[in-house]
Amino acid sequence: MGTAAAVWRFLVGPPVRVRQAAKQQITPIEGLPALSLDALTSVAYGPEAIIAVLAAAGVAALHLVLPISIAIVVLLAILVFSYRQVIEAYPGGGGTYAVCRANFPPSVGLLGAAALVVDYTLTVAVSIAAGVGSLTSAFPALGPATVPICLGILALVTTLNLRGLGDTARAFLLPTMLFIVGLLGVIAIGLIHPLAQDTPRQGQPLTSTQGLEAVGVLLVLKAFSAGCSALTGVEAIANGVPLFKQPRVVRAKRTELLLGSILGVMLLGLAVLAYRWHIGPRSGETVLSQVIALAIGRNWAYYVMSLTITVVLMLAANTSFGGLPVLTSRLAADNYLPHLFSLRDERQVFAVGIWVLAGLAGVLLVAVRGQTLRLIPLYAIGVFTAFTLSQSGLVKHWWKTRPARWRYRAVVNGAGAATTAVATVIFLVTKFTVGAWVVVLAVPALIALFVRTHAYYARCGRALGLHTIPDRPSAKPTMVVVPVTGVNRLTQHAVAEALSISSRVVAVHVVAEDAGQDTEHDRELDERWARWDPGVPLRILHTEYASVARPIVAFVDELREERDEQIVVLIPVALPHRLRYRFLHNHLEVALTAALKTRPDVIVASVPMPLRIP
Amino acid sequence: MGTAAAVWRFLVGPPVRVRQAAKQQITPIEGLPALSLDALTSVAYGPEAIIAVLAAAGVAALHLVLPISIAIVVLLAILVFSYRQVIEAYPGGGGTYAVCRANFPPSVGLLGAAALVVDYTLTVAVSIAAGVGSLTSAFPALGPATVPICLGILALVTTLNLRGLGDTARAFLLPTMLFIVGLLGVIAIGLIHPLAQDTPRQGQPLTSTQGLEAVGVLLVLKAFSAGCSALTGVEAIANGVPLFKQPRVVRAKRTELLLGSILGVMLLGLAVLAYRWHIGPRSGETVLSQVIALAIGRNWAYYVMSLTITVVLMLAANTSFGGLPVLTSRLAADNYLPHLFSLRDERQVFAVGIWVLAGLAGVLLVAVRGQTLRLIPLYAIGVFTAFTLSQSGLVKHWWKTRPARWRYRAVVNGAGAATTAVATVIFLVTKFTVGAWVVVLAVPALIALFVRTHAYYARCGRALGLHTIPDRPSAKPTMVVVPVTGVNRLTQHAVAEALSISSRVVAVHVVAEDAGQDTEHDRELDERWARWDPGVPLRILHTEYASVARPIVAFVDELREERDEQIVVLIPVALPHRLRYRFLHNHLEVALTAALKTRPDVIVASVPMPLRIP
């Protein structure tokens, strides 16, 4: 094992056995860190996104943050009730892809899958960017290093996931609780503290209706759709129902409600504070950081809170790493992605999915230079498409199964689907030019990839006769060809193995025609071969070209034409025990293997001989 | 053949046969472009290097350019006479490495070889940098692109040499003649033209002795050693004697004299003009460009001359590409470098040597940002070390062979050796801190590489028993293991080839233990296998790990321990006709091949089955 391999092994750990199928049995409280981090941490960028849009229209528009936040919380309520129904309908874990596959034709399922791939990738990028934003707000000196810090955190999260996180997810409880309690505390202090009710930045309160005319519907819609990024992640609990302790459905529904309540309170509270303090976007400092600083001052508690937010956002990115590789492995199992995605590596994780997710998120982070707000326009479309699909699927599900109160259920999910469908269209229209086009291109591209991969594997399966019984295999006589460089132990080793395979062996030696000294060389080799007498003939091949592989390939082709035989080429290879000596040998192996690879009836094998050189 | 391969084939051309050994039969005039370009083009940077050193000490020192140039021309005369003797003594082509090998212990030969490697590399870098310097002097707008232009020219020269230049060297005659005639013409015009005798830059002639005291010996030595870069390349004719028409020695000696005369006249002429016109270093314009512009004006002739200089310097770089790969191939043939260096590629050129030379020159050009003057301190040491070694070798040669007038010959060569040895020491001392330390590190590093490689091949030869007759090879019974994924045509193909090799075949199938559904899967596969009835048993291997390779390796190891058999592992490989489909298959092949590579008694082979998918 080389040094690089040893370092890698140290980073990701030794191979692990298949883990016992014992599920993590979690309670609603534990469900928050395990399944709700993505949603809860949205408060770090949702209100910020609203304010950024409003501020672009002038200071007068900033007061709209309150009504828009209220609208978003209403949508949140609809989604929460809707997803509580999803939990009931698909207690086996109703991921969008699963709901779609059960209720719609495959193409809709693929749309859902593509939207989810985009969503997971953006969740990683947005969470890391927002986490680093929180860090650089607290420590402005780190600002210029934003992109390297983002990539460093991405590398850390990727490595942890390549290790396989296992049960360590429970360790997330502490920072999550610190985050929830801390932020609710900040909001409470902000609301009741008399000093905090001052308007520290701008002396003048906004005259409430002035300039409202100029604001316009489009601005409100834009701000609303930007703020909807705060709702991403509320579907995660419905995906993870099997993780809960029995009674699962009850506990999962309770967690969903808990998540909805906390998130709603946070969003409203932050909106009230932002409204009251006329908080606008500020270069180098996030809105959340401004609110915290105004509420509790820039003391040790502020720094603890900032670091907690960074950590919790890292953990939110981490949960996507739990989701996407599982999704892509299912797609691969259904032949929609290369089977590589369904291979577990030695740590039992779907390493290819992890690498692809890390690569995509890395590209995004570099492309937007780690700026959260530049990712927001791309973000919500995938999520809301998935929302719409899974809820429409449920409407169909209720229609088909007709359980008790199915009409009521269908109405709830239908309302959710309609609202999110409208929101999706709003995103598309208002954000197309500022980044949404990327998603509009990416989703069909992903679907095309899925469809083409599926079609390929189907054709391939027919070509391989996967569902038929092939003819019985029939043996042919075998001829072994051994290219040799002279009479030495390497040749001896290879010829011995060749004789084990077949009694019909021929050694070949290539001489590049040069300055007429061939005869001399030929005679000498012939003589040594005769003295050795290995029981195998030697054929000397002359060539006018420089390539040694070419005449051997020609010789093999001759043999193939002459008679119907199985031809085996055994290439002697010296294998020095130190890697750095390898390139001092065996220049023929690579060329010959490549040259013969396209001849399907020829077996090419290297015969390694270890060389312990003192 | 992929697109990249096709483009490459277009660039370097199709494979060529070994060329007829017919030598290029050249005359003294043709010898100038073929062997003397490096030396002749030195005038483009030699005088410049002197002036740069002098100017650093103040304008008053500039007049020293004349005496220093005279000293250099005297040294040139010694070298020319000395090398005429080398030609006589080694009419077979007396390269430094050859002379050293004949007269000194191997270590001295390696010192010569190392010095030559450094010399060839620097010749390429210096010539290209000076050529681009001439270009940017004529077209100052190109100045900022100096490094890209350098690398572009390097890529061009490299590609041409990978094609193999063959007889095209004769095409060099025209630009070479244009260069010689043009530059001699420029000097003649400069010397006789009354207008040109004005001092156009500075009205006041230098008062000749003023400030001389301050100049000091060290400055003179520095300027002298910098100017010696103009002497590089005078040894090339002695290396190429076999290229000349009979009587070779006479013609080669005549060429050497011709080269010496032209170079001497050019150096002296340029020195006189630079002295008369008080030419100093000028940012963005070479000294040679200044001289030409002052002599003939900035008209079409000036631009023709500038471009000619660029072209001729490119051709000078090209001649190094003729030298280094041949030298490294000889070193490889003597086991001093990896044998890769002695392999001809399909164009019959020593491609590895060409690539290494191009890489080293590229690094140098980037490191000095294409500035010729920054390469000069590194340049002359290698050349002058080689001068000293080959001439000392000749002294020993005369001493041993004692032909007519051997004392006289020994004195000439001894004087040359002594002068160049002194010059080498001067370079080392005066230029150590400004770049010569690179050479002082590189030469021993190269020698260490040579010595270690040689020692490795010696040990390796003993380990392989290269000079003994090995025991007769003995055959063993063979067992073939075929990893299969199921009953399909791929499996059929591989099992048929396995049965051709041996009647004892076992198919293995790996099942990763997962959720207890193994039994179902096992039973199904067993049943299909029984229905197929290929005459080969199927072994199902269960594993708790994710790796499929691991249980197969364990199975093979078991077989190896049980009985003394030759084990062959045949891996079925689907080979789609389109490259982009390849990664959709065959994930086992790479892992298994790597895992089994270290088991010397196991033959591992892929059995490719072409897959034509509509």
UniProtKB/TrEMBL annotation, chains A, B:
Molecular function via GO: transmembrane transporter activity
Membrane topology term: Multi-pass membrane protein
Lineage: superkingdom: Bacteria
Keyword Membrane: yes
InterPro entries (alphabetical): AA/rel_permease1, APC_K+_Transporter
UniProt signal peptide: none
Alphabetic keyword roster: Membrane, Transmembrane, Transmembrane helix
Transmembrane annotation, as ranges: 49-81, 110-132, 138-160, 172-195, 215-237, 257-280, 300-328, 349-370, 376-398, 410-428, 434-451
Compartment(s): Membrane
Chief location bin: membrane
Pfam family, one: AA_permease_2
One GO cellular component, as annotated: membrane
Protein name as catalogued: Amino acid permease
Species assigned in the record: Dactylosporangium sucinum
